[in-house]
UniProtKB/TrEMBL annotation:
PANTHER family: HEAT SHOCK PROTEIN 90 FAMILY MEMBER (PTHR11528). SUPFAM superfamilies: ATPase domain of HSP90 chaperone/DNA topoisomerase II/histidine kinase, HSP90 C-terminal domain, Ribosomal protein S5 domain 2-like. ATP binds at residues 38, 42, 84, 89, 104-105, 127-132, 180, 335. It comes from Sinorhizobium medicae. Residues 31-190 form the Histidine kinase/HSP90-like ATPase domain. This is Chaperone protein HtpG.
Length: 631
């Protein structure tokens, strides 16, 4: 490659890029073909960007208005070249795009790819969209020559992927008229990528539906042969599209390397006309819990890419990938017009309704496939219960939950309501950090004893939507860790505990009064419980305010300074309580220690630590000493 100037700028990659390149160069993947898809995808994006900029500056197209991507195979010199006539890059853009990683998620990608130990390398590369850098899986040196449309300078970027790169100006006579040419100097074990049969197969399989024609030049100087016609898949009739076609397109538009769990393709006609092609991924995208919660749907106008920031779906459907193409917007639509456009509001409503309806149909027709979809995205969909009032009932009906009836499989709220006990007025739930902790919760005992189903909610979002969803089919939601359990009207399977409680009588009442006096401001009340059948004590929140789990979350996030004082509920039929109630009144120190230990026990059962570990240990020592003396 000839250069105009002898001066060459040498740069060192950013630390994250250097680490990423090391992973690329020194790892062995079962499928390296992904690099070609990534480079072709980048080339197609460059062509789309040029089409968009040419709307207001048609002179950028010059005498070459047709977009194209050309792959040149050079078996003799072990080189593969990918060239496009898209927007191209200037010197600063080369440094910014190829020398740094600005996008979020790169560190997470590197952590996961190291953990994967070569098992899912190709899938992760596609999933995290590291794009250009995947070239170093097959090349020991990469040269990039680029000329931005409308400029009279070309630039040369080069690197061996070992920590640094160079940038220099390039002879215009040897540079593309516009666009970018990437030359891969292939490693010994990657020379198969100069084979026409190999490369054409990969292109048709992985990039067969990019909206730019792709041609192959079998050897330098040969005539190009078109292998992809650049016809937009979404413009075809559904009857003409195979499942494989959809999958290939999904992998390109979504940056995923799995298969879609659900495909939604439709054309809306009438007052507003548009075509939508949306996919629910088969696995979780890495940015599923991005704090910005941005969607990944692309907006096209007359097949020209406009933006991927139009928010064509609500944030709780941000895992959906795909595009919307409409002819009803002007090609030079501005960001402000997009945000204020009633047409986009109409499209957003229509696409959202269609995606949710398709998910509902999947739940009815293929429960196993829906269960997998819900496992991946249920925690995100549930955000819509408190964000989307209009569709709240629909989202509640769609939601699935682990319950005390079956903690291995999920159940719908419709199933729950159908099997409610006689006298049961509410849908009961319990929130917490994990399923094992919830199943061991003492607050469940009274509900189990009566055969009452309880929702076991382990997603952080669960603590929020239950406070905003007033009811489902007329049945309100009620936390079993808040307020009175109201279980007295529902018969237990075995009511032996109630008989024991009745025998305790006045002594227990006096003990509860003593406990309340002893604990003072640490609790708001001490009372008997109808939710306990096995444990001696438990904590519950007062009737007003959030339940225990939500209080912990709000306090941890700094939204409240301190949690409200809990209620200590006591099982009056438990042998420990009846024994303590029968202790002589003069043994006040022992009774005080016992009461405070019971309170600490309730905290531990609720997943907390004793408030004062040292005092807890001292009380425990005194109680043990007394017990040993008595024995």
């Amino acid at each position: 490659m000839s250069e105009v100037e002898t001066s060459v700028e040498k740069h060192v990659f950013e630390a994250d890029v250097a680490k990423l390149l090391h992973l690329m160069v020194h790892s062995v993947y079962s499928d390296k073909n992904v690099f070609l898809r990534e480079l072709i995808s980048n080339a197609a994006d460059a062509c789309e960007k040029l089409r968009y900029e040419a709307i207001v500056a048609p002179e950028l197209l010059g005498s070459d208005p047709t977009s194209r991507i050309t792959l040149t195979l050079d078996e003799e010199n072990a080189r593969l070249t990918i060239e496009d006539n898209g927007i191209g890059m200037g010197r600063d853009e080369l440094v910014e795009s190829l020398g740094t990683i600005a996008r979020s998620g790169t560190r997470a990608f590197m952590e996961r790819i190291e953990a994967a130990q070569n098992k899912d390398g190709a899938q992760l590369i596609g999933q995290f969209g590291v794009g250009f850098y995947s070239a170093f899986m097959v090349a020991d040196n990469v040269d990039v020559v680029s000329r931005r449309a409308g400029t009279d300078k070309a630039w040369h970027w080069s690197s061996d992927g070992k920590g640094s790169y160079t940038v220099s100006s390039f002879d215009l006579a040897d540079a593309p008229a516009r666009g970018t040419r990437i030359t891969l100097h292939l490693m010994e074990d990657a020379k198969t990528f100069t084979s026409r049969w190999t490369v054409e197969g990969i292109v048709k399989e992985q990039s067969g539906h990019v909206p730019v024609p792709i041609s192959i030049v079998e050897k330098p100087g040969a005539a190009p042969v078109q292998v992809v016609d650049g016809t937009a898949l979404w413009t075809k009739q559904k009857s003409e599209i195979t499942t494989e076609d959809y999958t290939d397109f999904y992998r390109g538009v979504a940056g995923q390397y799995d298969e879609p769990a659900l495909t939604v393709h439709f054309r809306a006609e009438g007052r507003h006309e548009y075509t939508a092609l949306a996919f629910v991924p088969g696995s979780k995208p890495f940015d599923l819990f991005d704090p910005d919660r941005k969607g990944r749907m692309k907006l096209y106008v007359k097949r020209v890419f406009i933006t991927d920031e139009a928010e064509l779906l609500p944030r709780y459907l941000r895992f959906v990938r795909g595009l919307v193409d409409t002819a009803d917007l002007p090609l030079n639509v501005s960001r402000e017009m997009i945000q204020e456009s009633p047409l986009l509001a109409n499209i957003r409503k229509g696409v959202t309704n269609r995606v949710l309806t398709s998910i509902e149909k999947l739940a009815e027709s293929d429960p196993e496939a829906f269960a997998k979809l819900w496992e991946n995205f249920g925690s995100v969909i549930k955000e819509g219960i408190y964000e989307d009032f209009e569709r709240r009932a629909q989202l509640l009906a769609l939601s699935r939950f682990r319950t005390t009836v079956d903690d291995e499989k999920t159940r719908s709220l419709s199933d729950y309501v159908k099997e409610m006990k006689e006298g049961q007025a509410a849908i009961y739930y319990l929130t917490g950090d994990n399923l094992a902790q919830l199943k061991a919760s003492p607050q469940l005992e009274g509900f189990r004893a009566r055969g009452i189903e309880v929702l076991l909610l382990t997603c952080p979002v669960d603590s929020f939507w239950v406070t905003t969803a007033p009811d489902f089919e007329g049945k309100p939601f009620k936390s079993i860790t808040q307020g009175a359990a109201d279980l007295a009207g529902i018969a237990k399977k075995n009511d032996a505990a109630a008989a024991a409680s009745a025998e305790a009588g006045v002594a227990v009442t006096d003990f509860l009064a003593f406990a309340k006096e002893t604990l003072g401001d640490a609790v708001s009340d001490v009372r008997t419980s109808d939710r306990l059948t096995e444990s001696a004590v438990c904590l519950v929140a007062t009737e007003q305010g959030p339940d225990l789990q939500l209080q912990k979350m709000l306090q941890g996030a700094g939204r409240i300074e301190s949690a409200a004082k809990p209620v200590l509920e006591v099982n009056p039929g438990h042998q420990l309580i009846t024994a303590l109630a029968g202790c002589p009144g003069e043994d006040k120190t022992f009774r005080e220690d016992a009461v405070k230990l019971l309170f600490d026990q309730a905290r531990v059962l609720d997943g907390d630590k004793p408030e004062d570990p040292r005092a807890f240990a001292e009380r425990l020592t005194r109680v043990f000493s007394r017990a040993l003396k008595g024995s």
